[in-house]
């Protein structure tokens, strides 16, 4: 359905722009881009890491708006994002540490009679005493 609507919109735009004095490539390119913006749904960004907050994602979107990557504004935004990520990751890890410790203690008690040895292939080998 979307594919058909997009094809029709591109065709209609290209027909309208064909009469312009601009080159055909520019007209075709513009018709593709504008039709895509109108018809195609925009994919939402998913959090790749569990510790990235919505605030950090908004900062990343703002950084993408800046066109000159060598500007002071871009570098400041990038530095701010990295600092926010570092802080958020540290908080997330410190919240997870008690859970990890609790699980480690639980499994250590459950597996008292089992020795763990690391094999050459970096996987755990279990030996029963």
Describe what you observe in this structure.
The protein has 4 helices and 2 strands; from the N terminus they run H-H-H-H-E-E. With 129 residues, the protein is mostly helical. The chain folds into 2 domains: 43 residues, no CATH class; 84 residues, no CATH class. It has a two-stranded antiparallel ribbon. The C terminus is likely disordered.
Summarize the model shown.
It is built from four helices and two strands.
Topology overview:
Elements: H1 2-18, H2 24-39, H3 54-65, H4 72-110, E1 114-118, E2 124-128
Antiparallel strand pairs: 1-2
List keywords for this structure.
129 residues, mainly alpha, 2 domains, two-stranded antiparallel sheet, 4 helices, 65% helix, elongated
Major sheet description: 2 strands, antiparallel
What percentage of amino acids are in beta strands? 5-15%
Shape: elongated
Low-confidence blocks of residues: 118-129
Say how many strands there are: 2
